Amino acid sequence: MRLLIGQTGAPTAVVNASLRGFLEATADHEVLALRGGPDGLVEGRFTPVTAADVPPSAVLHGGSWLGAGRRAITPDDLDVAVDVLRRNGIEGVALIGGNGTMALLQALAERGVPAVGIPKTVDNDLAVIDHAPGYASAARYLTTVVPGLARDHEAMKGIEPVRIVETLGRNVGWLALAATLSDDPAYRPHLVLIPEINFDRSGFLYAVTTALAEHGRAFVIVSEGAASELTDEPFQAANHTRILLGGVSRSLAALVSAELGVAARGEVLGMAQRSTGALASERDRAEAAEAGRHAAKLLADRASGLMVGVHRHANTYDPVPLTEVAGLTRPVPPQWRSTNPADLGDFHDWLSPLLG
């Protein structure tokens, strides 16, 4: 068979492991690499590729060996892409990505192109599955770095009483919740804000005031999409082709300084969360590779309209229909929606094994 492998959306610390797994499992097939994400799909940027072409070091680092990107795909774009795929003799397409990627694959499948999805997102917002490759490594970065920031804040609380640290997560709070995990409760955040809980201005200021009174400092974690009304970032846009710069932590810090009269710092962790291969979870890397291998098997069996699943129980990778994940978002479930990190013990128990 002649297959195509590509990636759309942003990279993760382990996305190249999915690529390598796919290529190792398709050694008996001809495989073309899609270069440059959805733009490359429409423009036909395909080059031959084998597992030997992908250096082992690429699997250990962040970024995307294939190249990534975003594009608002129109029906005309889809027609062009289908024509390009057919002219190149492509018999099956695998794309690594999140819910937008799965929507693209579903559209291709509906047009008769055999299509299979390989899950990938640091946001962990893919529906149906327990967790997505990429999330655990970003979470491990946070659980490594944030306690250090809390210790730094303890030392500097005399001149910086409030520190607000911003994680990725424009629509969901999975990463912000991960940042509340600490081996030492003394350096656990005092407050966490996630998009699933409506921002309460007075409640936020009261919680900061309480933390200051109890601890002499207030250390806060916030998802970039929480309190979005304080910024002009288009977090609710259907397709993010505009760069999102974040900054809600700085807006909250300005609010604290204005209303409470204390010094506050807003810290934006940014792209380091998704790109730091040195802190990647080994379990996450192994699961990413397995997802790639299972996608290869599905296409070799001429399956279509499916995404590889990652299921917690029995460590299985049973596929799920693209219709159940395409364009959908999985929020943090109600039992883990809390602004108080001390209430998140069950979430921490769920997360800890994934960190590797």
From TrEMBL:
It comes from Paractinoplanes lichenicola. It comes from the Bacteria. Keywords: Kinase, Magnesium, Metal-binding, Transferase. Its cofactor is Mg(2+). This is 6-phosphofructokinase. The keyword Metal-binding applies. Belongs to the phosphofructokinase type A (PFKA) family. InterPro entries: ATP_PFK, PFKA, Phosphofructokinase_dom, PKF_sf. Residues 3-298 form the Phosphofructokinase domain.
